[in-house]
Amino acid sequence: IWGGDDGSGVLDFVRSLAAPAVATLHTVLRHPTPNQRAILLELIRAAAATVVMSRSAANVLAGSYGVAAASLDVIPHGVPNLPLVHPETIKPALDLAGREVILSFGLLGPGKGLELVLDALPAVVAARPAACCCTDSASKTPRRR
Hints:
The protein has helices at residues 9-16, 34-46, 55-64, 87-90, 114-127, and strands at 22-25, 49-52, 72-74, 100-102, 131-133. By secondary structure, the chain is an alpha/beta fold. The strands form two sheets. A three-stranded parallel beta sheet has the order 1-2-3. Strands 4-5 form a two-stranded parallel sheet. α1 runs parallel beside α2. It is elongated, with a radius of gyration of 20 Å.
């Protein structure tokens, strides 16, 4: 994402910031190359705070990378275990009543197939005019694509 060997360009970016940076680590490699390890440790040193998405990622950083566990914040990634409810009971609160919703979650990447979905959307909407893709969950405003 950042360019340079193993994403080393992120270090130039963080060093150039006038404001403190928070490094949010979605993935922590258990067996990094020496260069990946050095870049990640430098990023953690340069950041004002480091967030990981799981306790196991924090344990890997503490155990394998030597990062002080107290310097890591864990914000769990994933979906809370909530009771299953029928979608039609939730959709009105999200301004989605009567609509079919196409959604995806997780990291975007070339293997995800989103290009195929985008190519297919005109045909999907032609066949199912109420269909929409929610792209702005923060504002809860669906945007048909």
